[in-house]
Amino acid sequence: MLFRMMVSAAALLAASSAWAGDQVILAPAAPWIRSAQVDAPRAVEETEIGYRYRLYDAQTRFEDGVRHSYVRYRILMTSPQGLGDGGVIALDWSADHEDLTVHHVRVIRQGVEIEVLDTQPFEILRRESGFENSMVMGLLTAALHPADLRVGDELDVAFTVSRKEPVADARPESLISAALNTPVEQLRVTASWPQAWDMQVRSTPGWTVPAPRRRGGFEEIVVDMADVEPYFVPTDAPARFFKARELELSTYGGWGELARLMTPHYDRAATLADDSPLRAEIARIKAAHDGQRDQALAALRLVQDQVRYLAILMGEGGWVPTSADDVWRLRQGDCKGKTALLLALLRGLGIDADAALVTTTDGDSLDEGLPRLHAFDHVLVRAQLEGEEYWLDGTRVGDRVLERTAFAPYRHALVLTPDAVNLDDIPPLAQSTPINEVVEIVDASAGLFVPATLTLKTIMRGEAGRQAAAAMQSMGPAARQRRLDTLRESLDEKMKEVEVSAAYDEAEAAYVITVTGKVPELLVYGTVTPAYLRFNAPALNKRTGLVLPDAPHATEYPTASAGRVDYHLPEGMNYSVYGGQLTFDAIGLRFNRQASIQGARLTGYASAAAVAYEIPHEAYEKARLSVDPRFAKQAAISVNGVYVPTAGDRAAWAAEEQETDAAKRAGAFEIRIRELSALGLYDEAAKAADRAIETTADQSAVWAARASLRITRGDFEGAEADLDQAETLDPANESLAYGRLSLARGRGDTREAILAYTRLLRVTPGDVNLLQARAFAYFGAGLPDRAVADMDAALKAAGDDAKLLTKAQKVSLLGLIGRTEEAEALSLAVLTEAPDQVSIIESRIDWLVEQKRGAEAAALVRDLQKRDPGEVESATQTMVAGLAAAGDTDAAVAIAQAFIASNPEHPDMLNAGCWMLALAGVGLAQAETWCDAGLAAQPLSGAIADSRGRLRLQQGRHEEALADFDYALSREAVMSPARYGRGLALISLGREAEGREDLALAQGQSPSVARLFRTYAGAR
Known about the structure:
It contains 32 helices and 36 strands.
């Protein structure tokens, strides 16, 4: 409840002073309190929360060892919702060292004041909100629900909490906050203290706090503000930015004074009695463990495992530790008592150890603030072990390795030693193991089309793992099994024969959920891409309507998560892995992937670890507005050579054909046809397609699947007949529109392709990719105005992440239709808008090369070369073209060679290197070796044959080029570069009519295909 939280916070505004009382005192406000004048209410306006603050007045006075915190608020009820939320009064206080005095509770109705306390008393509640977390605070709550409260009424409440610090010799201090989360018409905050005191004052951003002035023997600060709006900072900002509109007061001269106040308490608590049973525990640890590290870990385990956490925070118990002997006797203690116990054990073992006060919430701003006891809410132990510093937390559970202890990012600590002067930094510990890890073991050795056996282990370490284990343990056997059954059932659609188990691994201090089963679909378009080696770009959101929009973004430093895989593939084949090695930093994270394949077994590891507590907003925005191409580089396993279906594969296919559900059977055929085609096994795919028609002819999906295969093979008439049949069976089949589009593009029928795009856009209006594609189709059909209109529509529909790339596409389109000046202006504007985005620089280089401005293109390439190679790898082809256009042949070839060196045996990489050099017209001998090697590894690849054809065309070896293009088109009939290259080769061989027919077909398939041949002397 918003209102109750505000009042509770206000009751602690300045933190301090009083004797004790468990009853509400009703009395007028003290003479030092200056009553605020409240203007007449403005016109009632509905608010989101149903009420509006007219006044919030907080006054703090230090006097005679007591801190008085006066609060008065006045709210106007604007809707029935506000009566429920704003009409509840709940005032908290600690009865053992605080008094609550209520001055009035009034309802103002049409200018008439009604004193609620004349007819309604407060109800005193003892509610321990932290009891479930083993915390006893000793708080009382005075609760009141004013009767007959109405919309339009004003509720006026005034009270004072008087507090006396329970810790002996503690000095006056306070933290006063005015960071309310709702608008306030009139806000006043005052603080006063005897003028003889040496009070330090500090304020945080969000308001202007004047210097103290003297008044009646007191120093006083007064802040008076009108029409105050909430100070909403970005939710992902570091914690220090949330400390807005705070006034900090302290009479401590430095952190050392605090250390000298608290050190004796911990030293006394850690001193053991002569007959303490803990002395026997110390002797036992010494006898059982060698070395300080092992002994310290044993002592930590004893404190964590054998003493339960229970915090009694009433009186001085909130600050002064219970003795180690009492904690051990009771087998319970809070952070202070457990720290005292751990100190006693470590010191008994001869280990140098001290208590260290920390804050669990404000670690990143503690060193900016004034020295205050109330700045801390937790305590650790700092220990010196074999020359290294360790921070140990007795309240944690299950620490088994010292490097994993004190994991929370406390940042700073006040180490309690008599000679302490300042805070100590707590360096974050590099984690030897990730907090969250998934281990995936896949056995696909029977065949790539056989359901693979999967074992998936999700490992949760640290606090999350302990909480998960505790939650499961608390359920009881039957409920625990139901939870596991629910998880198993949720996986039934993706896996078969699923089994789920969960257990806490004591040695690893980790909760492990294990899933086993069969995965039916391992291949995706001819490759195996392990999901747990994948890097997903974090979702980055645009900040709007906030204070401090340029604040840094907090990370979860120093946490890390990871995936580990072990894949067993069919023996007797050759495999390669693309993208196996990749390391880069982005968005405050370090991504690292190491994967390799030996024989038929792939092993790999991928991790993402925060590398800093926060990242600058400028870097965040740069990442948000650009697409880092390294995230798209996923580890993928492909078959080198020809995949030979195993006996297991054929058995799996036969089993699929026995499926009685026709739709499921059709789905299985679709996948088989698709994957066989992707592997280049077209004859097998054709057999599967015919078998699908034979056994499942009533399913539209199998006809559409065969149509797709026939388009690939160039059988357009057969594909059209199949699509007609598919439409007859199911006119709503979503794949039909794409099938018609593929057929139109295969035939080079631009106008029919435009109609297909239009039909698809009726289903998904505003689809940016479809609009861009139709724009280029309009260009191919000789309709430039419509082409530009579509590109503009795509720009309007594009989100922030796609708008720049869409502008780059428009540059290309404008260049094609001859609007060169307009294209140049837009190209420059886009580069100015995103001067660091690789894809935008790449598009600019492409444009400059197209315009034969090689020197300018090469300058941009050299700028890209200064970056991390992985960041610009996706732009390699463009970089080669830019340098080649400037005549820097050697540099262009060197870039291509460096690209290949990252994965020199992978056919796709070899093909890419050959293709980029062939297009640039440089390093042709080198390109030929790569193409030959690629085809030797993948003899069924039409793409590599096309690259070699392009290379041989560039070399003037037209007969050989024609043979390569013919082979490429025999593998994939709709390959516009091969078709266009074939046309040029035919013309060079004197077969003009055939050549021109091929050129026309290629341009119908892809209107901009001719650009790929700009370096060829015989280009048309």
